[in-house]
Amino acid sequence: MLITFEGIDGAGKSTQVTKLKRHLQELGREVLTLREPGGTAVAEHIRDLLLESKHDITPVGELLLFAASRAELVQKVILPALDNGSDVILDRFFDSTTAYQGYGRGLDLELLAGVNRIATFGLNPDITFYLDLTPEDALKRKFSEKSLPLAFESEELDRMENSGLEFYRRVRQGYHAISAEQSDRIVKLDALLTPDEIHRMIVGSLEKRDNRLTGS
Question: Three-state SS for 111?
Fold first, then answer.
């Protein structure tokens, strides 16, 4: 099973990935957790370029770098793991590209869909959990109230995070549109709930889809 987590930075994806991995392992399942971009030597180098570089990258260049990283990860790691019967939990997948480079950067959505199909070799998640959070609440989580910046612009943020508050508002709107269009696959969750409440909802959603994932 391929399970993906989506949401803007600060939504709590990493926490939920860790909780779900532990839950599935307690059920005796083999679980592999990964992040995007990253997961292979080449993909990690691309991650450094995309997130840590101080150089300006065009929206199309950014799109193609993310796609190259994804293609490496899917072909070299994700597909072999799924073929071996492992569950794969992925922190970000192609929905991030649609939300960030499509809605956020304004690139053509049909173009993005084609690039995503190439980069994923046609692979789709079995289920996606979208943790919904406003950009303002994301900033509050990242910074103390005393040092809270007025926008996503700070030396403590990476290149993507420094794209600005309006950018992240467009990204969130994109996630809302994607969730509405893909409601059979995407489970939208309130990221302001406690981590345990969110985890219980995630487990409940998985149990409804596959009775092998129940603890009984």
Answer: helix
